[in-house]
């Protein structure tokens, strides 16, 4: 059935894609306005079924190859946004296609195991070859889940389980605990808090939504927990010319964290966990130094607060390392590291003390998807074999230098180029200009993304090369000249 679906419109079956992957387009090709007439017609049809306001265009994934995304109108885009930073190796990578078509994997896809209760016989082997093979140093335990939001949600739950386990002195919950939690009352439903930062994004489920502080529309009309928000550093660029200012930003943020933890403790609402992104992606690509994060971890340890690093968007290689927090040189691993997006499956790594002491504490029907683990196993092999992290670091250095050169040539339009690996961004003079640049680049065949108030974010595949970089910069320069 999967192969038949990709035969529509005369497209070759998936089994033949390996032979045609080398036919990645030489460059973009835009033949209609975007969205084109077919996309507009499909969008109208979708609107009769569900809200489609956020749909940009409809894609033809069967025809997409490598770094290029093709839409239903035949437009070919160099994709530097990659499904909101979610795909590692590009479209229809031949080895991923082979893995998907392997008959050994069909039964798991069709019968969809509930991994928490009835896992596949090869689950341990697959985990060892995928998630454990690239685990953050010092974190040898992992829990698979479905998406980034539920990964963060369950990491937070794990922190709270551990907090209450310690509070009870390791004893089991009392009858009063069990009865009161059914009425959402203390002591079974304790007043615990999670600290997050202004500008953060950790998901749209109810728990993570309280931690998300990037855009009002994410949170509007939804009840939230009484959880604290601390200040996150807001650096000025270039870094080497703003050392004192940025150091003061670090200091103010750390002081804000300490004050919030103490404030919530004073009202008998202790902070059980702190969650932080290596780069505040949705919030505007805000960075902080390794020194800052080392001090933040030390503060969490002092206050007995779980230190959760949200690598949903930064994990999987775009920083030039498998995990962005590797660059911090922490004295010990984070308590938990969450992931999704480029890792193809959701989940979190954790220290042994956060392993639940009872079943069903961290649980849902699926607990991930074995087909995604199979694909991730292939991704890990390809990334290591082809030295893609080394390539990301090299291309990322040229990407950042190119952005810095553009802001020097167009200072009225661009500023504050920043990034790690190819996980880069640049700010525009205002949101209107940013949106115009992105729209005009799309018309040039280059697909970029927005973040924060006025930033453009660059989120290419791990297979993005200098050839693709030159095409992207040519389109950007063309657009900037018109503005």
Automatic annotation (TrEMBL):
CDD domains: OAT_like (cd00610). GO terms for biological process: gamma-aminobutyric acid catabolic process. Its cofactor is pyridoxal 5'-phosphate. Keywords: Aminotransferase, Pyridoxal phosphate, Transferase. GO terms for molecular function: (S)-3-amino-2-methylpropionate transaminase activity; 4-aminobutyrate:2-oxoglutarate transaminase activity; pyridoxal phosphate binding. It catalyses: 4-aminobutanoate + 2-oxoglutarate = succinate semialdehyde + L-glutamate. Its EC number is 2.6.1.19, 2.6.1.22. Pfam families: Aminotran_3. Gene3D superfamilies: Aspartate Aminotransferase, domain 1, Type I PLP-dependent aspartate aminotransferase-like (Major domain). It comes from the Eukaryota. One of its GO terms (cellular component) is mitochondrion. Belongs to the class-III pyridoxal-phosphate-dependent aminotransferase family. This is (S)-3-amino-2-methylpropionate transaminase.
């Amino acid at each position: 059935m999967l192969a038949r679906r990709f035969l529509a419109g005369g497209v070759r079956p998936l089994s033949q894609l390996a032979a045609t992957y080398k036919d990645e387009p030489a460059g973009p090709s835009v033949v209609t306005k975007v969205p084109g007439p077919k996309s507009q017609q499909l969008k109208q049809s979708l609107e009769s079924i569900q809200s489609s306001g956020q749909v940009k265009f409809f894609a033809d994934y069967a025809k997409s190859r490598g770094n290029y995304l093709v839409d239903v109108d035949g437009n070919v885009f160099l994709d530097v946004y990659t499904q909101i930073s979610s795909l590692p190796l590009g479209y229809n990578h031949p080895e991923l296609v082979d893995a998907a078509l392997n008959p050994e994997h069909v039964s798991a896809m069709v019968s969809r195991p509930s991994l928490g209760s009835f896992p596949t016989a090869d689950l341990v082997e697959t985990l060892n070859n995928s998630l454990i093979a690239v685990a953050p140093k010092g974190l040898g335990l992992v829990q698979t889940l479905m998406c980034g939001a539920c990964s963060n949600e369950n990491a937070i739950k794990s922190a709270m389980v551990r907090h209450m386990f310690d509070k009870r002195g390791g004893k089991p919950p009392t009858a009063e605990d069990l009865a009161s939690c059914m009425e959402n009352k203390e002591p079974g439903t304790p007043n615990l808090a999670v600290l997050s930062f202004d500008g953060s994004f950790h998901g749209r489920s109810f728990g993570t939504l309280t931690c998300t502080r990037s855009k009002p529309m994410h949170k509007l009309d939804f009840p939230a927990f009484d959880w604290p928000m601390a200040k996150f550093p807001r650096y000025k660029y270039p870094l080497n010319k703003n050392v004192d200012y940025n150091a003061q930003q670090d200091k103010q943020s750390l002081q804000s964290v300490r004050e919030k933890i103490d404030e919530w403790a004073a009202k008998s609402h202790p902070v059980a966990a702190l969650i932080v992104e290596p780069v505040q992606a949705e919030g505007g690509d805000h960075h902080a130094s390794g020194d800052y994060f080392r001090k933040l971890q030390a503060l969490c340890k002092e206050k007995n607060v779980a230190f959760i690093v949200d690598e949903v968007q930064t994990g999987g290689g775009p920083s030039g390392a498998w995990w962005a927090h590797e660059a911090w040189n922490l004295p010990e691993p984070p308590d938990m590291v969450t992931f999704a997006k480029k890792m193809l499956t959701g989940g979190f790594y954790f220290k042994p003390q956060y392993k639940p002491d009872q079943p069903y504490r961290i649980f849902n029907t699926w607990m991930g998807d074995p087909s995604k683990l199979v694909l991730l196993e292939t991704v890990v092999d390809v990334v290591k074999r082809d030295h893609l992290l080394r390539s990301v670091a090299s291309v990322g250095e040229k990407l950042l230098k190119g952005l810095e050169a553009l802001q020097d040539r167009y200072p009225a339009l661009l500023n504050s180029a920043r990034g790690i690996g190819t996980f880069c961004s640049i700010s525009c003079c205002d949101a209107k200009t940013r949106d115009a640049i992105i729209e005009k680049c799309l018309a040039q065949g280059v697909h970029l993304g927005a973040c924060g108030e006025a930033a453009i974010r660059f989120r290419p595949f791990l297979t993005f090369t200098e050839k693709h970089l030159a095409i992207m910069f040519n389109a950007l320069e063309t657009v900037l000249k018109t503005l």
